[in-house]
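Comment thread on ticket #2218

A.B. wrote:
> Attaching the input chain for the structure job we discussed in standup.
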Amino acid sequence: MTDAVAARQPGRGESADRVTLEISDGLAHLRLARPAGRNGIDMMMVRALADRFEKVAEDPGVRALLIGADGPAFSVGGDLAHLQTHRDRLPAELHEMISLYHSTLARLAALPVPVLLAAHGAVAGGGLGLLWCADLVIAADDLRITTGFVHLGLSGDGGSSWHLPRLVGLRRAQELILGGRVLDAAEALDWGLVTEVVPAGEVAGVALARARALAAGPTYALGRMKRLLLEGWAHSYPEQLAAEREAIVDCARTQDAREGLAAFADRRAPGFTGR
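C.D. wrote:
> Ran it. Output below, let me know if you need it in another format.
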């Protein structure tokens, strides 16, 4: 799938599907497309995300993924209006939604290509799950991050309880989850939750340029780097050294490794293909 890809159901805007996807020149560009609802997550959006990420995962031509969003907020998290309409069967509704959403996040985290996310406005609740799965996060200076579950009497979803202690340490994770603290863009950068902060009007362009650069890189090697970083938490030091050896030997078999060495010897920029 090398041409631009629209969502499965009719209509380029996909207001019903909540999510759009285009794939071009090795870059998959996924956007949350429910601006009127501030990209709140309901069952339709969960299903749309699962469908789009399946397309990305199954397309061998994808070399990087960029995730963005339309409207004033990246995502306010769960759609409370949707949950309110299902309050009489709330446990069952949450079980169905979160089971599919979490399996989708796990698939996103396991993608063997770089994932870059452009965040702006509010990123809250379960919507943070998409941010946690990204390898690089370009944030607008109007960013606000909060888990927010403490205000709803809910314990949370989207992987925050797993990612936050690893990203910021237990005490700060407790402050965000139990205390309901709101972080602005500068604080999110200081805490290590985002990669870079840029003016709000520039975030889309900066993110797209970074994503295109990743898509033009040695994406097989980048995928192995991702895996090493994520799996290192569960390895002993000798196990991690063995994993590094295995990964670099596998990378040495690729065309990109041969091209990288040749380009270095020729004092030119390499032309990577991801193979």
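A.B. wrote:
> Thanks. Noting for the ticket: The two ends are 17 Å apart (CA to CA).
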